[in-house]
């Protein structure tokens, strides 16, 4: 008997260990995911900048001295930058070498200089020390993503270029800075100029449309179904529909968006309005289901008490039941919004995968969203995009965690009140 | 999340009861295991009636139960004899169910519940850390207020206990136990044709008898019944009472009941609990005809409760 | 008071919403579709164009040359793209389709050359291929290896079976799908080139051109040739992970990823900037884009975009496109296309 | 932007603002109607609200609705039909040469006119006709706006004052307001049905067109998937085989791997968290697990493609397996991780729903905790768990981004997890993002696949919901 009992207890312990290791495993996966993404992405928050003493030659950029903005904005600032580079390395004379040298500066440098000059035209004719972005490969070398000891053919930077970089470092002209471009700029073909600003704006516009549509409609539908709907076939149909809609694969919603909103209604491709419409249809079931659960959990006594003092059904619901259910509904809405924020697949269907540089200003402008930008960058070959992808993921996750944490806190407080 | 507290309860084989050793030693140190009159500074009435028995099956000394900071039972002393039907009565919340659950350590499953004092079964402390709750529960079975058959077939319900305790070597042996238990529980004739149908398909009374059959299938020595008839109609109640009558020759039965009539019909001895105190114990007839304590009298005559 | 607050909220929210709606949906930016090979060049120009002018930055979708022409030729109007990039010249059938749909005047702009590289992971052995090897390894039907003039379904499983000089390695080639111009050019230059080396097949060309084309251009479908999507970047990444596979993609992608993959030499010529520019590398093709003339004065910025693309600082010998791996045309050719663009000379076929 | 350009832009901004102003005035009028309604109701009641049928605020709402709703309707209709009407008017005044243009060209001309009206002059030499048209367009627009303002505001004022005037003490204002609100609520709840209808219609029509080109039987039972019909006449494409079986098998293989990972881990996690873990551990671990569910699938895709797939490949080759770089294993594994919280939270719910009395009954029979869980709790919760798993399967089948990024495109008919397979969702994405035209079998196939996907997940959901409902009935 005793032996048997021991065996049973051993089995009990084993089972418990299985459970524990299952939880541990899930948490380990989570940790692994976070560690690997943060490990890959944290470097993107810094960016290598190059200090150039630029002589803003009025001969080159404004030969007629008109100081006209139109002339200035189309002037060849690239040449000015090249002159500045040449000044640091006067010994480089071969054409090929020169090109290799100029490659160390990002193509964005001339635009930065241009903007600076446009803002302060009085600087023309002076020498201006200015930090410009270095090329993506230089950035990668500075961050150690390009191995110096690899053979010359195996790395994008040649030995000569590395020697120049070392010279620049020794002069204190190369330095890693906080990467503001990453947050402010739109997409770019150059990793050092690419940012998530455009995608972020696109995401916010899309979410705005989603929220504007799905929250009021979702709450109204939940209230109707939970409190006013007669028990009949039509109501049953609506209920079954909502439950099914909640589990329909997101990509099918994308097909809906393509066929209905773009081809039938003629809304523009790649626009946040279409994305928002599609996502709000996706979020609606979540909000309705959460809303109904939350309305159901309001004690019936409150509703009855309101009716008993002469309130109409509508008044009882609107004045007493709905306010009490609001935290629960908000929780559901936030979770739905978080899902919408992370959604990619349906947006691929409606043309939100395109190269879009401008930051969208309205819901009809072409734009991408954060997850789609991640998808696009994940497929880009330049090494700089790898870390930027991971960094964009970090930003996205930060948003999601904040949203989910808000939902959890709201739920906790809600539960605490009852 | 009130359920959580139940689930969260642990059976810890290594340290079956964290407080029991401490309490045990304390009781020993004090040298008298019979009664402490003052616990937590509250005035305690003395229990009226005959507490002690010769050769008791269960013997409780100074048993107190706490739920968190709340004390549910205050220093109960009581003996329960062999082959007797022992009834516990009292108003709601007086602690009788809690007391009952002490005998098979079901209180272990409630996380903030704490039991002090000693309960000896056949001379061994059931709260001692060498006593294993699992093997204790084999000896002390329990039937609950609401019938709770498992969502399995009738046969599986009865076979559950014998199977986990390896009481039968073969399937035939197991079947024999099932049949015998069902017969003993007086259910056999009603269910013999549908042994493999769901236990939940039976009527309430049948379900409760199924639970009793399930309990006696593992041959306990004591059966605890926690208001077994409260969810049943009078006919089903009558059947259960009949069953208790036939079981008394093999088992010690402790029954908690709200019905004084039931207690008077089936029990040998009765205990009256009031607000966590054991007020009076005695032979059932005596208690019901001639209660000694005024509280008992009030309750029995219906002035209280 | 609650109601007032609510109304104020509704008011602000809806005014925000309405404010974001333009009064009418006129298109004010250029829409570009087309080849994934030209995509990296077009996006660079687009980005520059957006930064240096006051026009909105054009939108570029990478759809493959074939898909691009299909969208482009669907009609004129703001709903259709203005420009399509192509990694091959427009075909007669496509041109006719354009005509039929009212896209009558098309301006053809050749922007430079691109080699088609056949590359594999640096970790693997370097390949040195003949066009015939490529044909035998990748065509759907090949001449019977036992000799004779009949065709059989491609029996080759390893490169060694194709040519004893090649490594004993499973034939596994990642390449673009049929909508892509890279695939078209690859079939035309590499497979047909190899195909022609069989004299009797070359003779077939005169007799039955259709059968000849079907034979020489059809790629096997038994899993040896894996369609890896339109995205050439993806192929590079996949090659890096799978050292057994070869990949077919534009030279610019090879150029960008020399640390990861190596190009196989074809007919003994390595895929290099110089060898493609001088024409000694056999599989190289011109890149184009096509412009709808009808859109030029309608969609803002079209002319400026064209002049940006055709400026020396973009497509010149030292232009920024060359930095990205585009092989510039000779100066004379550039001048010719520049004048075509200036005069908006419509294509005639 | 030069000064003149800005001046030209002004009308546009002005027009936008007008709509906004009208809207704001409308709202303000409604608010005013509300207050007047309240006040008038109180006045009619001579200060004693008890004389009224409804509360004063109901009369207020009633007036506000009458004031706002019809006018809003007109405003809405106008915004929808404004552009087509304006365009038609402008076009009808254009010279004949323009009107005779084919639709596409005309469309371009209109775009030009609109751009000009917006102040964007594209060509150097503009057709005076077009300039005139642009002016006309602009003037029409401002006229339209002015007319709109007058109509809308008159309507609002008129309806509002009539409603106010008609306020009577015995008027059943509350009932009317509530009927309208209830109607609105009902309309909102029907949107779910509209969405479903939209989905079905949007895939069914295209699928029917597809099945005209490719027989249903070929699609459902064909063993070869190679959707490369030539997109031009003279292009030599592949054979264009549309047998979806390899896709089903690939989808099932990946889903199976995902379930093999997620069901045991998710279920055991749920059991541990609900039966064993302490309250504080549960409070920490559960939200952490839910984070796994909240991570966007594109992130999992990145994780799978960049980290897991190479890792599996390297490990495989170390043990002498030939693992494809896009093995089904990598995608399935990561998908499994994604689904863990899904399984665990659904199981957690059903395990918690098992009545405590069953556990007590089992403990009272001397069962250990694991025996109680394995033999009583899990069997009792099984229907719920099964339906949860079904929902998880439907999720795995419909999951897109992970497979798009980590699984391959080659439709191999294989059950070997180390090989590359492709799934239904991957094909939908590749078919539709490559070439967006709407008539080739290739793009239509995507819709047929979408229909299939919708049907399969629908069936899974219906079964799951049915099981849940039956199971609930059993306990209630």
What can you tell me about this protein's structure?
The complex is a heterotetramer of chains A (418), B (305), C (349) and D (476). Chain A is mainly alpha-helical and 418 residues long. Chain A folds into three domains: 2-42; 45-179, no CATH class; 197-417, Orthogonal Bundle (MetI-like fold). In chain A, 67% of the residues lie in helices and 5% in strands. Chain A has helices at residues 2-41, 58-61, 69-73, 77-88, 95-102, 109-119, 136-142, 159-170, 181-184, 197-228, 233-247, 250-264, 272-296, 300-308, 313-342, 345-349, 370-378, 383-417, and strands spanning 46-55, 127-133, 174-178. The model of chain A has no long low-confidence stretch (mean pLDDT 86). With 305 residues, chain B is α/β, with parallel strands linked by helices. A seven-stranded mixed β-sheet of chain B has the order 1-11-10-4-9-8-7, with helices on both faces. Chain C folds into two domains: 26-114 and 286-343, Periplasmic binding protein-like II (D-Maltodextrin-Binding Protein, domain 2, 3-Layer(aba) Sandwich), CATH 3.40.190.10; 115-285, Periplasmic binding protein-like II (D-Maltodextrin-Binding Protein, domain 2). Helices cover 43% and strands 17% of the residues of chain C. In chain C, helix 2 crosses helix 14, helix 5 (131-138) packs across helix 7 and helix 8 packs across helix 9 (209-217). Residues 15-25 of chain C have low confidence and may be disordered. Chain D folds into two domains: 3-185, no CATH class; 225-475, MetI-like fold, CATH 1.10.3720.10. Chain D has helices at residues 3-44, 56-93, 96-99, 103-117, 128-165, 173-189, 191-213, 216-221, 245-276, 279-294, 297-318, 328-353, 356-364, 369-398, 401-406, 424-434, 441-475; strands spanning 225-226, 241-242. In chain D, helix 2 packs across helix 6 and helix 13 (356-364) packs antiparallel against helix 14 (369-398). The radius of gyration of chain D is 32 Å and the shape is flat. The model of chain D is unreliable at 1-13 (pLDDT under 50). The chains are: A mainly alpha (418), B alpha/beta (305), C alpha/beta (349), D mainly alpha (476). Chains in contact: A-B, A-C, A-D, B-D, C-D. Chains C and D meet through helix 1, helix 3, helix 4, helix 9 and helix 10 of C and helix 1, helix 4 and helix 11 of D.
